[in-house]
Design goal:
- By secondary structure, the protein is mostly beta strands.
- It has one domain.
- A hairpin with a 2-residue loop joins strand 4 and strand 5.
- The relative contact order is 0.27.
Length: about 110
């Protein structure tokens, strides 16, 4: 699997955050280019769990992504936001109806 990654370090103040999502003033963020060949997972939470187990292989620079306790926070036309602890992931549904992580951030 080939993955293209963008990293960003940010400092923000968030005023309107859905209940349960971590609020942070600084974080490390990343975006992934989705590539053909990876089928995805059956749900947004399963996609987050899979990503957490495999993210170290891609050296994305975001350490200690939780492997469990993922919860859905937001659904919109772009996908689903899931979170666990201080980590937030954005998950999109592919044309095969399976789910994949396309970006995320971890509070510093």
């Amino acid at each position: 699997m080939v993955v293209s990654i963008s990293l960003a370090g940010c400092s923000i103040a968030t005023s309107s955050v859905p209940s349960g999502l971590p609020v942070c003033s600084s974080y490390s963020a990343f975006e992934l280019d989705l590539v053909p060949g990876y089928e995805g997972q059956a749900s947004p939470v399963k996609a987050a769990e899979w990503f957490a187990r495999h993210s170290g292989l891609w050296k994305i620079g975001v350490q200690n992504i939780p492997t469990g306790d993922w919860r859905e926070a937001n659904h919109d036309s772009q996908g689903v936001t899931v979170y666990s602890g201080n980590t937030v992931l954005h998950v999109v549904q592919a044309s095969n109806a399976m789910w994949r992580v396309d970006s995320g951030k971890r509070c510093s």
